[in-house]
Amino acid sequence: MIMNAGKTLFAQLMDFLPWSTFNRYVTRYSGDRCAGGWR
User: Fold this and answer.
1) Distance in angstroms (rounded) separating the CA atoms of residues 15 and 3
2) pLDDT for the residue 4
3) Global pTM?
4) What are 9-18's pLDDT values in tens digits?
5) Stronger pLDDT, 23 or 31, i.e. the higher one
6) Alpha helices per DSSP H over 1-39
7) Ranges for the DUF4372 domain (predicted)?
8) 19 vs 2, 10, 15, 24, 37, CA distance in Å?
9) SS3 of 31, please?
């Protein structure tokens, strides 16, 4: 069993998932629609 070694769930996911796949999901599901004020 692999422990998380203090990493958040999101950090663990990003270690596993390529950035290109993550960006594709953000685009597909409009994941950044509420982040406009933070840019």
Assistant:
1) 14
2) 64
3) 0.54
4) 888 888 888 9
5) 23
6) 9-16, 19-28
7) 6-33
8) 22, 13, 9, 8, 23
9) coil
